[in-house]
Amino acid sequence: MSCVLVLALTACSSTDDQPPPDLATMASPCDFLDEAQRTELQLGPGQLSTAPGLAGGTETTLCVYRDAALGDRGGDYVDSVTVTFLPTTLDVARRALDEVEQRGLFTAGRMSAYATGPDGVLRRAGVRLGETTCERLFAASPTRAVQIGLTVERPPLGEAACDAAVRLAPSIFS
């Protein structure tokens, strides 16, 4: 795994000297956050869901880690992290996700289109289901794109969603 991809997800070095996750070979998106990261962010175990692939293709898998404190916190905090494995190229995933966003019944226009962020990774921000959200999209392999979304509860007024994500979850969004 290249350092560029590693930087998109975590950092090139880990505090416990374990290698970063290899998203190209990871079997489940629920393996993305380890117990230490979930504890730091006060998130519960991930909940896995799947959707069948088109024409019998590989299924899309999604894991949602939710706030384990159940809103019993003061100030701003990470409400949830969503990790989605998309069995397609990065370009196809980007176009499809942007198109779905623009046609969404409840969300049309609330999330920006994907654009390259300061770190070179595609990202978009906005409000999804009433929550301040930052999403990142990148290729884990030529046939797998990964979307990571982070929602922030009670962000400071005027702080951009992705700035809050980087501040609150640097091990995921820096």
Structure description:
The structure is a single chain. The longest helix has 14 residues. The radius of gyration is 15 Å and the shape is globular. The N terminus is likely disordered. The protein is built from five helices and seven strands, in the order ααβββαββββαα.
Give the SSE map:
Elements: H1 3-9, H2 35-41, E1 47-51, E2 60-66, E3 77-86, H3 90-103, E4 115-116, E5 122-128, E6 131-141, E7 144-153, H4 161-168, H5 170-173
Antiparallel strand pairs: 1-2, 2-3, 3-7, 4-5, 5-6, 6-7
- Structural class determined from secondary elements: alpha+beta
Number of distinct helices:
5
Mean pLDDT: 81
Spell out the helices and strands N to C.
HHEEEHEEEEHH
C-alpha-based Rg, rounded: 15 Å
- Placed side by side, the strands forming the largest sheet appear as 1-2-3-7-6-5-4
**Unreliable sequence segments:** 1-19
- Determine the strand fraction and express it as a percent band: 25-35%
Largest β-sheet summary: 7 strands, antiparallel
Q: Got a strand count? A: 7
Helix content: 10-25%
Q: What separation lies between the terminal Cα atoms?
A: 17 Å
Shape descriptor: globular
Summarize this structure briefly.
This protein is α+β, with helices and mostly antiparallel strands and 174 residues long.
Features:
alpha+beta, 5 helices, 174 residues, 7 strands
